[in-house]
Amino acid sequence: MNIASLSENKKIEKRLAITPEITKKYLDLGFNLFLPNNYGNHLGFDDNDYKSLGVNFLDNEKDIIDKSDIIIQLGIPEDQKLSLLKENQILVGSLDFFSNKEKLISLKSKKINCFSLEMLPRITRAQSMDILSSQANLAGYKAVIEAFQIYERAIPMMMTAAGTIPAAKVLVVGAGVAGLQAIATAKRMGAIVFATDVRAASKEQVESLGGKFLMVDGMENLETEGGYAKEASDDFKKKQEDLLSETLKKIDLVICTALIPGKEAPKIIKEDMFKNFKKGSIIYDLAAVQGGNTVFTEVNKIVDKNGVKILGEANILNKLPVSASNLYAKNVFNFISNLYDKENKKLNINLEDEIIEKTLIK
Fold this sequence. Notes:
Elements: E1 2-4, H1 20-29, E2 32-36, H2 47-51, E3 56-58, H3 61-67, E4 70-72, H4 79-82, E5 90-93, H5 101-109, E6 113-116, H6 131-150, E7 158-160, E8 163-165, E9 169-173, H7 177-188, E10 192-196, H8 202-208, E11 212-213, H9 234-247, E12 253-256, E13 282-285, E14 301-305, E15 308-312, H10 321-339, E16 340-341, E17 346-347, H11 354-359
Parallel strand pairs: 1-2, 1-4, 2-3, 4-5, 5-6, 9-10, 9-12, 10-11, 12-13, 13-15
Antiparallel strand pairs: 7-8, 14-15, 16-17
Helix pairs in contact: 1-10, 6-7, 6-10
């Protein structure tokens, strides 16, 4: 059985779905691997790194598709490549069902099985396949590093003969995986960290990392059965806005991570809140591609609003592509391993398996 990966559009995606490290595991399961020439060169993975392990390289991606039973990607391939897919092939990746619904349903009508891994259920057995968690961990870390780099003051408290420099104060909006990693990173670097989230269960997690949780009076537990945040009531939003407005008066940096799957990101930092920011403050908005958590966020731009800089990148993981690729490749291998019947050496799309049932586009 043949597995392949096609080159991503490197202008928007530098990560890889198959790394040399994970190659041997596929081969040990009995798969043949096919890749295009120069597949990982941009990340320092020479073709020979793969060839020495037994990977086959081809010049033409059409030939790769023709030979493949399973194609593993980061995002959904470009239309030209999608048109080459054949009946009974399998496409696996972070396919973004909510944005690419029509394309994916069209592929399904051609009897091409598509698995969109961002739809994995939040269950214990799926943790090793959870691409959202592995990638969000890195995103939360990198957002803090990027924000601190632009902030024009010291981060930790520093006592000198000339006087004391106070520690920077960081607010993390959204205490999911990315937010918790942002809290941990900012805390390790000496900042005083505050955090807010609509999920009451987040309080204990935030405090375990040394952060101070901002608690809204009469707080609701706005958490889905799958562990994601859900939309808040108007009354809760008003209370949260009042609390944030007051808190922002003492904050130097804000890391925004609040997302609702399949919907536009909630606008948490409103226009009138900007009057409370200190000049020179920084906002890093990880929700930029879904509309942003601030009203002024723009994708791939640094917006200066009354002396407050707002950063919103389309794909922050392009700044950590090797680490992100290594984790993503392991997640996908674990998913493929679950899909593969090792005893009979064939794929088993068992819809009684919650992992397979939830990720398969129907």
